[in-house]
Amino acid sequence: MEILAFGVQADEKPMIEKAFAGHHDVRCLDVFLTEDTAPIAAGYEIISTSVNASLDHRVLQTLAAGGTQMIAQRSTGFNNIDLEVAERLGLTVARVSYYSPYSVAEFAWTLAMAVERRIVRASNRTRDFDFRLDGLMGRDMRGRTAGVLGTGKIGEAFARIAHGFGMRLLGWDVAENPACAALGMEYVDKDRLLAEADLVSLHVPLLPSTRHIIDAAALKAMKDDATLINSSRGGLVDTEALVTELRAGRFTGVGLDVYEAEAGLFFLDKSLAGVEDDTLARLVTFPNVVVTSHQAYYTTDAVGQIIDATVQNVLDHLAGRRGENVLVPRTAS
């Protein structure tokens, strides 16, 4: 059987081909699954998609009509998939429930230090042989307060790094993580966390209850010199409200690896076509903002685990097994 994989990055292709070798053939496409590209999947029983695929009711109907029976998503998040429609159409859907939390946590800290210590601005200057220090003054992290919204595996890994810096830890989640509490983390309500944290990092999933968890009110509750980091999901932050606060001169820095309207932009080269998204265009002009294109997970370790789990999801489906990663189970024949 040949598997069709959408949205495969050049670095991923040899890893995917190697992982499927000895099991099934795989055809890797660099295009993302959208309403326009969905007809390509006709005749493929199993397809694999990336986090930026669009699997709304129209795409799912096209897939089902073309004979697709299983969607193996290569990500933890699945907010891009209409699971109710998939179930109604008899499509099996699986994701990757776990991969290296250190990849995202370490990258969140990379963003934090990049904005705190003005690394991007300094690098751009030295390329022009401008070695002045004006405007590059940062601050120590030791003794300051890190607020972690979401203390699951990634939030815990982030907190461990913060603890290593010698920071005070505040946490917010629906349930306390004993490992974080053992680091000295104090669990508080969200308002207190935002008011006291010098650094706020987001590590919660995107759900209806967490959408725009950082809205205009939350942003105003934060310290004027706070730093905000989002390496989780773009929809957690109200970007329009964030731009308003940045225009008012607030925040030491903002590091974003995700953006709420990133679909159709991130993972693509828009350098010649330009970007029509006025909010994103405005966002990247602020000197204290660093935006990256959803790459926090993108390490050989994490991607390798994602691909291995995807292969296992496919094998389980073909063997009639329901693995732990299944979101919509196989319809009984």
UniProtKB/TrEMBL annotation:
Keyword NAD belongs to the record: yes
D-isomer specific 2-hydroxyacid dehydrogenase catalytic domain ranges (all copies): 8-327
Domain D-isomer specific 2-hydroxyacid dehydrogenase NAD-binding: 110-296
InterPro entries linked: D-isomer_2_OHA_DH_cat_dom, D-isomer_DH_CS1, D-isomer_DH_NAD-bd, D-LDH-like, NAD(P)-bd_dom_sf
Gene3D superfamilies xref list: NAD(P)-binding Rossmann-like Domain
Oxidoreductase in keyword set: yes
CDD domains: LDH_like_2
Keywords: NAD, Oxidoreductase
GO MF terms, alphabetically ordered: D-lactate dehydrogenase (NAD+) activity; NAD binding
Source species, domain of life: Bacteria
Record-linked PROSITE patterns: D_2_HYDROXYACID_DH_1
Protein family membership: Belongs to the D-isomer specific 2-hydroxyacid dehydrogenase family.
PANTHER family attached to this UniProt entry: 2-HYDROXYACID DEHYDROGENASE HOMOLOG 1-RELATED (PTHR43026)
Name of this chain's protein: Lactate dehydrogenase
Species of origin: Streptomyces filamentosus
